[in-house]
TrEMBL record:
<feature type="domain" description="Porin">
    <location>
        <begin position="7"/>
        <end position="325"/>
    </location>
</feature>
<keyword id="KW-1134">Transmembrane beta strand</keyword>
<dbReference type="InterPro" id="IPR050298">
    <property type="entry name" value="Gram-neg_bact_OMP"/>
</dbReference>
<keyword id="KW-0813">Transport</keyword>
<dbReference type="GO" id="GO:0015288">
    <property type="term" value="F:porin activity"/>
</dbReference>
<keyword id="KW-0812">Transmembrane</keyword>
<keyword id="KW-0998">Cell outer membrane</keyword>
<feature type="signal peptide">
    <location>
        <begin position="1"/>
        <end position="20"/>
    </location>
</feature>
<protein>
    <submittedName>
        <fullName>Porin</fullName>
    </submittedName>
</protein>
<keyword id="KW-0732">Signal</keyword>
<comment type="subunit">
    <text>Homotrimer.</text>
</comment>
<keyword id="KW-0626">Porin</keyword>
<dbReference type="InterPro" id="IPR023614">
    <property type="entry name" value="Porin_dom_sf"/>
</dbReference>
<dbReference type="Pfam" id="PF13609">
    <property type="entry name" value="Porin_4"/>
</dbReference>
<dbReference type="GO" id="GO:0046930">
    <property type="term" value="C:pore complex"/>
</dbReference>
<dbReference type="GO" id="GO:0006811">
    <property type="term" value="P:monoatomic ion transport"/>
</dbReference>
<dbReference type="InterPro" id="IPR002299">
    <property type="entry name" value="Porin_Neis"/>
</dbReference>
Amino acid sequence: MKKSLLALALMGAFSGAALAQSSVTVYGVVDMGVVRDDNGTATKYSLDSGVQSGSRLGFKGTEDLGNGLKANFVLEMGVGVDTGASEKGTDFDKAQGKYVSNSSATFGRQAFVGLSGDFGAVNFGRQKSLTYVASESIDPFGAGLAGDMSRLFSTTNRFSNAAVYSTPKMSGFSASALYVFGEEAGNNSAKSVGSLSGTYSDGPVFASIVYEKAKDGQDPAATIANTGEKTLIGGTYDFGMAKAHAAYELLKGGNGTTVALTKKNVWMIGATVPVGAGSIIADYSRITDTVKSNANATQFALGYTYSLSKRTNLYTSYSQTKNDTAANYNVLANIKDPVTGKVTTSYSGNSDKLFNVGIRHAF
């Protein structure tokens, strides 16, 4: 009997040691909000999922391979909490010149595997773009809520078939490189994307610069052009009583020779002011199209978040976009258009106004 108990104890000890070497975490976000959207031609109230940030369910794991080397993976899917349906990822469609649902992407938000260690980390699969990673820290709205900077900035959220290498952080500095395989037979560069980023983060200072070049309409900056390029520079400074945010982006798209089909300048200034258990957030953005006439737009956004706990918060925000006669930007973010029911729509010459209030829980 004593030997049996000893054997069980030893098995438990070895089992615990094995489990300590690897782990899998289930995580997610459940976000629901009431939305009022006025696009200049119609007004609609709705109950929507993913207003502050996309509702999601994810799995991530790490295995200790020894000598400081680890294997890592992430599988993350979108969830429509308003209907209970899974929400697929979106990809930029060259022919349509806009984002469309990728119906085959079960884990449309992220799906990758890789290795990490003293050398940094390298991952392969569907991953966040480097511009999106930077904007998550630069944007006072955290790449969420109505009026986040991605409404005017050309921020591609994710890329499929991507390889990403990130250096370890050294004296506050780090860098990343991304390459998207176009997977076109006979032309290895077709539909490919290359991107580099450099980041400094130490104490109250955060600063990042990102360059991205996309071939054959793989990016909104390219649209129907052969090549799209973007350069994003931005950062934040935390004064304690408030945090300042600023960003600038240059977008260029051409046909590979001398024709400039797209050239836009975008800038944003913003602030985050802590107030008790919450924060007031605001930003102002403007986009100037130097190729297309009457295609400029401005955006103003004001919001408030209140933390009920470390994982649960209430939020509200108001945002307005003013378009020139040939501009068609909106503040819908993840919200459906009140007329068409689609996420992406056109607002040429109109002012889109959106107000929302909701609750977000992370686990």
